[in-house]
Amino acid sequence: RSLSLCPPPGTSVREETRRDPETGLYRVESTLTVVPARGGPPRLAFSCSYVPLPGHGRALHSGSPIRPSVWEPLQEVRLTMRPEGGSVGAGEDVTLTCEAPARPPPRLHWLKDGSPLEAPPGPVLLLAAVGPEQAGTYTCVATGRDQNQRESSVGLSVRLTGWCGPSSVGGRTLQTLALVLGVLGALGAMALVAGIVLWRRRRRQLGEERKPPESQEEEERAELNQPESEEAESSPGQ
């Protein structure tokens, strides 16, 4: 028999020798324990051989080797984004890369804001010429052989560049938009009130300029009666 005195790391060998009390023959049992290293070869081959001492028989072999498959459980998921920083300008391309070390390779799918994303399954998600509607939280979900799931998320915001400078599409932009709409609404209400006040004042002025017909007739009668009263006053003195 042969036995390696220096087994590789992660390998142990245990042997037991027993003698049959009836026949007097010896029986050898050898147990090999192997712990595959992460990142090692996916398939291993094992065989057993018995090589006696010279002059004590011929060598024996176990036949076809045993080839167990080695799989690595899913432990973590790493999600990276290019460009880095989580904020990009409108019209730029964004690449999300999902790394999930496991053997066999896990199944991957993508989420956006918690909802399934219509994208082909795979470790790379390409967002071409992003716009405001593509801002949000992207998640890569990996499912291993044992149905164990791991996930990783990254946030994406899209900057809109214009004459007023860059602005970020997100919660702060919505708050700013609400504030601007509120200010515009208040200015509109003030303009409406001012218009009503000016309209009433103008109407009052026009009403004062237009005198009623009765007042005009009284003035004309007063002018006609004034010469008659003057003649009556002058006649007794003559």
UniProtKB/TrEMBL annotation:
Location of this chain's protein in the cell: Membrane
Q: Compositional bias (Pro residues) at which positions?
A: 1-10
Source taxon at top rank: Eukaryota
Q: Where is the composition biased (Acidic residues)?
A: 228-238
The record's section on Pfam families has:
Ig_2
Q: Which UniProt keywords apply?
A: Glycoprotein, Membrane, Transmembrane, Transmembrane helix
UniProt xrefs under PROSITE patterns: IG_LIKE
The Ig-like domain extends over: 68-157
Q: What is its main location?
A: membrane
Q: Which GO terms describe its cellular component?
A: membrane
Query: Has UniProt tagged this entry with the keyword Transmembrane?
Result: yes
Q: How does it sit in the membrane?
A: Single-pass type I membrane protein
User: Matching PANTHER family, A to Z?
Assistant: ADVANCED GLYCOSYLATION END PRODUCT-SPECIFIC RECEPTOR, CELL SURFACE GLYCOPROTEIN MUC18-RELATED
Question: What is the protein named?
Answer: Advanced glycosylation end-product specific receptor
Q: Which organism is it from?
A: Ornithorhynchus anatinus (Duckbill platypus)
